Amino acid sequence: MTHPTEALFPGFRRFVLPGADGVAIAGVLGGAGPPLLLLHGHPQTHAIWHRVAPLLAADFTVVACDLRGYGDSSRPADAADHAGYSKRSMAADFPAVMGALGFGRFAVIGHDRGARVAHRLLADHPDAVTRAVLLDIAPTLAMYEGADEAFARAYWHWFFLIQPAPLPERLIEADPAAYLRDVMGRRSAGLAPFDPRALAEYTRCLARPGAAHAICEDYRAAAGIDLEHERAERAAGRRFATPLLVLWGAQGVVGRCFDPLAQWRRLGTEVEGEALDCGHYIPEEAPHALVRRVLPFLRLDAPPGA
Q1: How far apart are CA 128 and CA 207, in angstroms?
Q2: Residue 3 domain-assigned (yes or no)
């Protein structure tokens, strides 16, 4: 049977591979060259990369995955501390997946939740990551510590999703398509940037049994155990040395409420970045601008002739 995203990724092949702790990670693979991992955000799937992956596949072997709890990846059981959905646990899936594909080291681009997972890859698996690009986030701890009224109004879903189960789950499951429209359509560009096939895929996946609970666990972990991990690193004075490119949408919330570049420079030793002329959903709103900006950065580590 043809998968719903097949038309969005022509020439790519689908896979399901083991991550960490028995989790199965679904994704697509295409292109040729040095390995590049793409990680999506909320409330989406690897389909966010459908305009970007084919462009990057000319230079890289592109691996676009569904995070655990999202898309067609499996949803591990929850725990009192939500550790199964900590960014540390989510990040541990990807050295396993990339290793199974034959890649011991790789570059990564993460958007939104996927960028938070990429942050943990930088912190927990520094030998695995050659270069990283983080899209439209500041560090989780910095965003919670700096939350003000403007941020809370714009990122209302952060505070909705962390409410005790089953309140947010019940409301999302009542109408997953409406939840998607409300979360994505209230951003600066509305729903106009999204391919109807991608929107249909996001809706299909959010309507799967257990999907609403899994995404709530992701956010509950971010408001708890993830903050503990970041505070421990701050107290220890740990910084990552992997080259990092930070990009955010000029019409988005992150750049208005925070200073992403300054925040990431507190955590990394080699950090550059800037705003792009778009809103939050950079891979779908400004795919060509994104590729133009990331290619020179990613190619710096490519072998001659790659």
Answers
A1: 34
A2: no
User: How do residues 231-241 score in pLDDT, each as one tens digit?
Assistant: 999 999 999 99
Average pLDDT, the chain: 96
The residues that are catalytic are 112, 280
pLDDT of residue 305: 43
- Flag whether 2 is in a domain: no
pTM above 0.85, yes or no: yes
Span 250-271, average pLDDT = 97
Q: What is the CATH number of the domain that holds 78?
A: 3.40.50.1820
The encoded tokens of residue 195 equal: 């391919």
Helices marked H in the chain — which ranges? Answer: 53-56, 87-100, 113-124, 140-145, 149-154, 156-161, 167-174, 176-185, 196-206, 211-222, 225-236, 254-257, 260-265, 282-285, 287-299
Q: Report whether 70 contacts 139 (CB < 8 A).
A: no
Over residues 125-150, the mean pLDDT reads 97
Residue 207 inside a domain? The answer is yes
Note whether residue 104 is domain-resident: yes
**Token pair in block for residue 218:** 């992701």
Query: In which domain, by residue range, is 44 found?
Result: 8-299
Helix-then-strand count for the chain, H and E: 15, 8
